[in-house]
## 1
Amino acid sequence: MKGSDSPLVSAIALNAIFGNVPKFSHHLIDALGSAGAVFDLTPQERLEIFGPHNPHAAQIGPAALDAAQAEYERLSALGVQFLDIFAEGYPEALRECPDAPLLLYVRSATPAAELFGRRPAVAVVGTRDQSPYGRECCRRIVSALAQAPARPLVVSGLALGVDITAHAAALEGGLPTVGVSPVGVEEVYPRRHLAFVERMCSVPGCALVTDYPPGTVPTAFNFLRRNRIIAGLAGATVLVESRLRGGGMITARLSAGYGREVFAVPGRIDDPRSQGCNQLLREQVAAPVASPEALPAALGLGQLRRSRTADLETAVRQRFAPALPQEEVERLVRIALLIRGSRGIQPDGICRETGLGYAETVRATGLLEEEGFIETDLLQRCTIKVKIA
């Protein structure tokens, strides 16, 4: 096979060779006219371009194209899609970046060409060591984005902590979300998120994206390369929590370097998980997220229309129905209504009134408290916290 015979296969092969240095691929293509032309070089031409000691020169040849063709056929049969940088559906915001990957592997229920460019994209990132404060802020931020007049695509990195909270909150709020992976498209990292990723990829408008060939294992460098794609896909990046060093900080600084907007959630000065955010705010690299509900307007997504919850039962159903079995949702509704009518009731009293076991009751009240519907004091007395119109 000649490189000029199949531009996409040539891009797959070239990405496998120069994926860590995409700028070099761009220079080659600019000089030669196409990715395929790289594989049409004669040995003498390769020597003139790469010199005698370049380790990559020997990889350019028919064997690389044959391997790329086999990979294309195998992954296509599994439903994997490909976007090379010349394709019409390649995300324009990412294409603008000087180190944009030559190729993206995509898993999605939506045609890859329709995933990007149809709505604004916002990256929501942060530490794996997420605090309860960070989790609540992340959920409120994504919830506010979901209520914006211009509903965005939420981009993150599938990591523990802030990333997976952002993805999950997006799905719960009906927003499309894209997870950028640090490994090959056939794998999920971390492995514990496999079931979530399978569900995410089945939702229209959502996707798993990577520029890594199959078989790539996670290394420290992989996460740096992954972060540049997160920053490149989004018109703005929101850093929820981060230590002074971490992937979220790198993504935020990359975003600023690409000329994109950066926002950071201020945190306590004595909390290491907020030091990165506070540092970016001091340096004026980021603007503060003073209120999650005000963020959509700052991002140009429009002003939220504020409305109060009309009914406690409806509010509980809307919050938990996307994530829990119906039986458990009904249990939560029953307990919430009981607490509203019996202010200060304790778990033992809830058990007596509902016939539920103690463990079930504590789990239910914990979920209701976690989501802000109730609050408990030191004596475990429960009261309704939300304001109902």
## 2
Amino acid sequence: MAEQGLDALVLAQPESIRYATGAFPGVATYWRRAGAAFAVVPHNGPMTAIVGDLQAEAFKRQSQIDDVRSHRIWVETGQFDRRSDDPENVARALVNRDVAMGKRVRESRPAQFDTSASVELLRDALAERGLLKARIGLELGFVAARDMANFNRAMPEVSWVDATNLVEHLRAIKAPQEIEYLRNAAELSRAGVSALADAITAGMDAAAMTAIWREAALAEASLRNLPLPASAWAYIAVGGDGFSPGGPARAGDLIKIDVGCVIEGYSSDGGRTAVLGHAGPAERIIYDALRKSFDAGLALLRPGVALSNVYRAVATTMWDAGFSTYGRGHFGHGVGASIWSEEWPFISADATATAEPGMVLAFETPYYIRGLGGFIIEDQILITESGIEVMAPSPRDLIEVG
């Protein structure tokens, strides 16, 4: 913030609010619209949070932020005390308690939430800190143009600065709890891949394989007394073009297994390639080139190394192996709490980021070839102070199954 001359940050993206506060910002954020929740991070001083009234108390407990303000969302709640309230006059009891809490009679809540109301609360919080003429960072990569009008109307003298990249950089460095979520998710996913490799037979399609993988990942969570992942995703492709699901599997078919488990909003990402029976010469040549390229990039992936250099090592190895038109845009990405499994930074030709301790990256060398199928080698990597840790490691050989 000091480097960019910011007086404060206003976080509007749900994942960013959770990163900064450690608390779930509420169900209204599922619509992914600016105004459902905010976290105000001043350059100096305590934070303020603005969330929907349904979860304001829980948010305050989880975040330990003293200044939590709430706006009305669509969910109606009430309070009833069985010990003192008359069950024969339940409506009166509920209304009396509501009125005592400031609710109005015969007034409807918004269908979702009122962006103008939450922005006014934000204005009040900034005004109390003397920040209505300040230079404030906002995630303009998230805030929609029509929502930005609310900010400008309520706070016309604020100088809003795009803080999208700044917040991405902050979120790329994971806290210990985040790393634990990602490690556990990766280990559950690996258990599923191992079980799937043992179970694949001729005639299976991608849907059947996905079910086997998911069941095994959930079973591993139960075995280890871990909370079940909130969700588990799989891009499994059988033969064909390597990306569409495909199947049923026949002898010689490639099976691309790209999977992840989501724990507390944090998604793992890893992948392996299998073949039903034995790989043909073309499949073997391609896989060996991808494996050598993966190894070349992995050898460079250390703290302080430019991610563009990692990309160049992978791409050059493929080109030198004869695949001179292989031009994949990135060989990996950050993982964390996002709407899917990919977030900044990317291991790309134009990457400006360097590997930093605390980053968790999915490093990969995929190739999808119509007429052969899909190839992928992908590991989840933690950048440490002295090197790297491969989370949930497993052999990188082409897996022969069936």
## 3
Amino acid sequence: MSLPSSTEPADSFAAVRPRLFAIAYRMLGTRADAEDVVQDAWLRWNGSDHAAIATPEAWLVTVTTRLAIDRLRSRKIEREAYVGWWLPEPIIEDAHTPETAAELASEVSVAFLWVLERLAPEERAAFLLRQVFEQDYAEIAALLGKSEATCRQLVHRAQARVQQEKPRFAVPQAAHRALLARFMQAAGGGDRAAMKALMSEDVQLVSDGGGKVKSFMRVLVGAGRVAGVYWSVEHAFPGRVAYRPALVNGEPGLLRYVDGRIESAQSFIVDEGRIVAAFVIRNPDKLAGAPQTI
């Protein structure tokens, strides 16, 4: 039985909303910005002539992508003024929403978004639409207002950048989780030697405090230096630091608590049985979706 015509536009939008959120979040890296873009898309959809739209999903994807590109461009000055490194707002499994389920269904790791942040807005959009959402080049060209050849070049450049920074081998989640469990135990006990043994020699640590809390203004490199950072936290707050495993953007990660309150969400790249990168999100504004207490 068909729905009353007055509810059909809302139902059509609701059916594709998770996909729109997925596009906007990957483009923008924060839940608030993604939700704002989806809301703007809804307002445009609600005010449109639905009878003249042959394919509602394609229309909504186009509108959402263009709105996200516009927002990326407008945020350029804001990002340039951001204090320290910018990491995405993490999606924590404990904070499920209907959109989150769609997010975790395909690649949206912190490391992936960290690489995407270095792409130009249209390059980022072309890459995501092709490699993540599997749209053909004719659709991408029409959406971006560029030729198919140009879109192929955008995707090729982005793919090269992403491939350059990806781990060489895919790591099963069970192995990833087991390695982080050992690291969590070592970090919780302040065991620097054990932490170093679980890291590659050239491991990197990126920290995002957003100017709200202390964070490193440069990428730290080296197992000794990174292990020392974790040791210093335990040393500064003896008996007051606790780690909890969590899925961070669909991958095994850690939540760190100090005095029972959330202090950071952490994501890790693992390759060949070692941690090769750690992303530590400390900006309190980006931790609202994490469990706030143990």
## 4
Amino acid sequence: MSHLTNCRLTGISIGILILNAIAINPVTAAQLVSVIDAHPERLHQRSTTKSGLGLDIGLQPVIVRDYSQKSSKNPIAIQPGAIANPNKTAGIGISTRVGTLGIGVDVAKSITPQFNGRLGFNFGSINLNRTDSGINYDSQLNLSSIQLVGDYYPSTSSSFHITGGLVAQNNRFSVTSQPNASGTYTIDGNSYQSSAVGTLNGEYKYGNSIAPYLGIGIGKSTNEGLSFNADLGVMFTSSPKVTLNASNPTFNNNPTTRTQLDNQVRQTENDLKGFNVYPVLSVGISYGF
């Protein structure tokens, strides 16, 4: 067998060795190539011991580099981006918030680099004093809602977002009347002593139990670690529906005074027609992982 044939066989054997290393362990192949590139004289010495002919055929770097560039199924370890980043985040964030919807907790999931989906729950209560249609009330705003919204980030380098979605809400005012300074109520233009009426108890409930939401905000809770968030927007709740009853059953069930109570309800609903949206403002802290 000629010296030239021996050299060719040696080159083929080295190529097979490298390809096998790639199939078994890409890192081993990278190390083998590094050794050959760094010390080509060793390979040259081995191949020219008997024949005196060099093996400078460029086989080892050409095979490995072509293989790494052309193989889409098994890219080797030294190829940039071939191995998944072990520190890559899960794209999930948990937030706590406080605002006009009460105290809230939500979970966000990154769908794309520019879009997050968010599911949250809000609850709480606020005590207020209000006057509607000439009647003073002690009222409590009871807050309860579940929101499913999406946050769109126009720029991946900014936390500013536009938010839209739906809020299933059961926010309502529970009201208890207080007589005026003379101890009377004025109901549908008629004055009654508080002893004849008792107290007036009512409820104001927003018309849309499923309310569309639109807003803007800052913060991206799916970013890794702690971050600040704030949202400003409106729920399209429709104007409130009102119920009103007297604690004295005689007054409440008498056809004349019942009609007057119903007229008072319509007056109050008419006064509240302009309150067909609910303002939403919240601030909070998020943690992403």
